[in-house]
Amino acid sequence: MLSSLIKEHQTKQAAKRVVQEQKRKECIAAANDLTQALVDHLNVGVAQAYLNQKKLDAEAKLLHQGAINFAKQTQQWLALVENFSSALKEIGDVENWARSIENDMKIITDTLERAYQTTQEKPSSSQ
């Protein structure tokens, strides 16, 4: 009877160990699944942040390139405006020069006309 009780007890203990081992394995599997799910969830967030960062970097490069092009175009426009301003000044200088020449030519013309008239008057007065 004692030996049957011991065998029965050992059988129950063995069955409990099997059940306990099975539950331990299930618990470990569930913990692994939970850990994997958490890591996957974090990886999705990290992957999304990485993709967003790549997009931001690409946009920043485009913006930087656009700013460089804008600066070059601005410099070209400034050079054109400066050249145009210089050309206008030169036109103004040429216009002043032409007026000066015109005034000088009027003075010369007036002087020549007076000289001609004076020479025309002298011979007629001497006759």
TrEMBL record:
> Which InterPro entries does its entry note?
BLOC1S1 (IPR009395)
Report the record's Gene Ontology biological process terms: endosomal transport
GO CC annotations on file: BLOC-1 complex
Q: Which residues form a coiled coil?
A: none
Top-rank taxon of the source lineage equals: Eukaryota
Family to which the UniProt record says this protein belongs: Belongs to the BLOC1S1 family.
Name this protein carries in UniProt:
Biogenesis of lysosome-related organelles complex 1 subunit 1
**Organism field:** Euphydryas editha
